[in-house]
Design a protein that fits this description.
CATH topology: Rossmann fold
Low-confidence stretches: 1-83, 358-368
Radius of gyration: 25 Å
Shape: globular
Helix content: 25-40%
Largest sheet: 11 strands, mixed
Number of helices: 10
Mean pLDDT: 81
CATH superfamily: Alpha/Beta hydrolase fold, catalytic domain
Strand content: 15-25%
Distance between the termini: 89 Å
CATH architecture: 3-Layer(aba) Sandwich
Order of helices and strands: HHEEEEHHEHEHEHEHEEEHH
Structural class: alpha/beta
CATH class: Alpha Beta
Strand order of the largest sheet: 1-2-3-5-4-6-7-8-11-10-9
């Protein structure tokens, strides 16, 4: 018995020595690629409105849920408690498959209703690229609201096509967003009085179109680098006052503040909404220049004393480009770092919710 134990111990020691020698001679490289490398690679300039990025993976685990039934079918993403993650889904609307992603904060529970921001991506980008660029999910997780990222088919039918060279398909995107809200309300605990729309560039044009045609569903809107097009303005009859936030760089060469053929200027856009909201007072504040290296500063102009406590706010980014303040720099002009657009948008949205609108007004509106 003792001899057997001795041989067993010796055999074990020999195996350990062999394993140690093998590990010592191995050459295993574990490399973590910095996000900055992907960001640098993303800044190649193409012919689209914004650079065609290399999309870096988000840190949140992703689950996929796809609805296969027609427009009012319910996505299969149902659960009594959902952890911090993103869900992808699609449904058929007017004969076409429409896709979207939903960000769910890690505090989500079916026992309470959550505000929701609809984020509308820019011309030539995807919903994923918009998600990565704005970093809106981090703000949503900190402040406990949901974000839905719908995907345009090619580009949003936002009115941006009023200017030649910016063609957009004739899709019923307002109707798609309207049905999307219904779909999401069947799958998640959403506060239907606190649904907001925010967009960048062409997504900003689209946010204004939703303010005009879905004012009974959207409580407030924000546009970064987008204006209201001439066709959208001509057909804009909101059922209520709409709180509006505009963020725009004075050196934006893609959507100039002075406007273009088919696109209203920033001043014309603001004048339209201040008239809609019956605002008669304007105050200006200079935002502290906390980053003197970003090449731009910010002036905040607030149009107040409006009907039904509505408001219009304009963050004028002096020397700013066609960019999202607080985001990573791009080749499309200066990116202001004194302001975090995602945080400011939520700080603006959280103060507003829908006011009652009569059913008769909605039926007579003529919106899709």
């Amino acid at each position: 018995m003792k001899n057997n134990n001795f041989y067993h111990i010796a055999y074990t020691i020999a195996l350990i020595l062999l394993f140690t020698q093998a590990c010592g001679s191995s050459n295993i490289d574990l490399e973590i690629t910095p996000a900055a490398q992907a960001i640098e690679a993303s800044e190649a300039v193409g012919t689209d409105e914004v650079p065609q990025e290399v999309v870096t993976p988000t840190v949140e685990p992703t689950s996929t849920s796809v609805a296969t039934n027609p427009a009012m079918s319910t996505p299969t993403s149902t659960a009594t408690s959902k952890p911090f993650h993103i869900e992808s889904a699609s449904f058929e609307f007017e004969g076409q498959e429409r896709n979207y992603m939903v960000f769910i904060p890690d505090t989500y529970t079916d026992s309470q209703n959550y505000p929701m921001v609809i984020y509308l991506h820019s011309y030539g980008w995807t919903a994923q690229q918009g998600m990565d660029y704005t970093q809106l999910n981090q703000v949503a997780n900190s402040y406990n609201f949901m974000v839905v990222y719908p995907s345009a088919r090619n580009n949003w039918n936002s009115g941006i096509g009023d200017h030649s060279g910016w063609g957009t398909p004739n899709h019923n995107d307002v109707g798609f967003i309207d049905v999307l809200i219904d779909m999401l309300s069947m799958s998640y605990s959403i506060d239907l009085d606190r649904i907001y729309a925010a967009g960048y560039s062409n997504g900003g044009f689209m946010a204004y179109k939703l303010a005009c045609q879905l004012s009974h569903r959207i409580a407030a809107v924000a546009s970064v680098g987008g204006v209201i097009s001439t066709s959208t303005l001509a057909d804009c009859n909101p059922l209520r006052q709409i709180p509006v936030l505009q963020i725009h760089g004075t050196e934006d060469s893609w959507v100039p503040i002075e406007g273009k053929t088919g696109w209203n200027s920033v001043d014309q856009t603001l004048k339209f909404w201040t008239n809609i909201n019956d605002c008669d007072k304007a105050d200006s504040t200079i935002i502290q220049d906390t980053d003197s290296t970003d090449g731009c500063t910010v002036e905040k102009i607030s149009y107040t004393n409006c009907t039904d406590n509505s408001i219009v706010i304009y963050y004028k980014v002096i020397n700013g480009g066609h960019t999202w303040p607080g985001a990573r720099p791009t080749s499309y002009g200066n990116t202001n770092q004194d302001l975090n657009a995602s945080v400011e948008i939520w700080n603006f949205f959280k103060g507003y919710q829908l006011t009652p609108v009569s059913i008769e007004s909605i039926e007579n509106d003529g919106s899709p």
